[in-house]
Amino acid sequence: MADDDVQTPIGVTIRPLETVEEVFAAAAVLDDVWGERGGMPPNLIRALAHSGNYAVGLYAADAAGGEERMIGASVAFFAEPAQRSMHSHVTGVLAGHRSQGLGRLLKQHQRDWAFARSVGHITWTFDPLVARNAHFNLRVLGARVTEYLVDQYGPMDDAVNRGDETDRLMVSWALAAPARSPREEDVVTTVAVPPDIETLRLTDPAEALEWRYRVRDAFLGLHEDGFAVVGFDDARGYLFGRR
Q1: What is the dihedral of CA 74, 99, 208, 167, to 10 degrees?
Q2: Structure confidence by residue, pLDDT tens digits, 43-65
Q3: pTM as predicted
Q4: What are the strands of the beta sheet with 189-191, ordered from one edge?
Q5: What does the DSSP assignment read for 181-216?
Q6: Sign of CA dihedral 52, 79, 111, 152
Q7: Which pairing describes strands 85-93 and 121-126: parallel, antiparallel, or unpaired?
Q8: Helix 42-50 vs helix 20-34: angle between axes, to the nearest 10 degrees?
Q9: I want to staple 158 with a disulfide (CB 3.0 to 4.6 A). Which of 7, 34, 97, 177 is the partner?
Q10: What is the tens place of the pLDDT at every residue in 187-222?
Q11: Model pLDDT, residue 63
């Protein structure tokens, strides 16, 4: 990723959450992103930050370059020492500031922060049905799928997950490795996902749930048969090859 690092836009900064006020602002931003209160409580963010974990706010100045406000936040914590890894638990950017490269900017900052602390891998989970996240995580960053987790968090009542089961893909990002696309000859089969599951959940919840079960069955069956995810294609979905 070093050759195409994202340039920080003018007026945008990323800083550690050092005060109680900053911690509460970050919790409020994450509440806004997920449409619920208390998803990431301020006291938990404060405890993680104070004990040396990754907790940052993404700030943007107004058009005149004056007053700034927090528009995103990210929190991660260390894994067991022998793994030289940390787990990125939550990262969010307010709706009006998405699709501007700020998510990648946060990941780049997280990567640099981890490297400075001798961390070689960052893990996180994401919903396998969200195609834009699969594109970003697997194609842009080059993270590797390590596990399919069935209903990992149980029922969640936020605006993003309400009414669905919380299946997740666990991914591991080797921070020193460049993102690479698989060779076409290594792709044996594919698993499609809907282009916009968030809208589908609103317009046809039953069909969205059918996608959940269809993708889950496909992933688990392919894993049982010795296949693993080797990439993602925007048209075809997840690309599987032999393990």
Answers
A1: -30
A2: 999 999 999 999 999 999 876 66
A3: 0.88
A4: 189-191, 237-242, 227-233
A5: PPPGGG--EEE---S-HHHHHHH-HHHHHHHHHHHH
A6: negative
A7: parallel
A8: 130
A9: 34
A10: 999 999 999 998 999 899 999 999 999 999 999 999
A11: 67
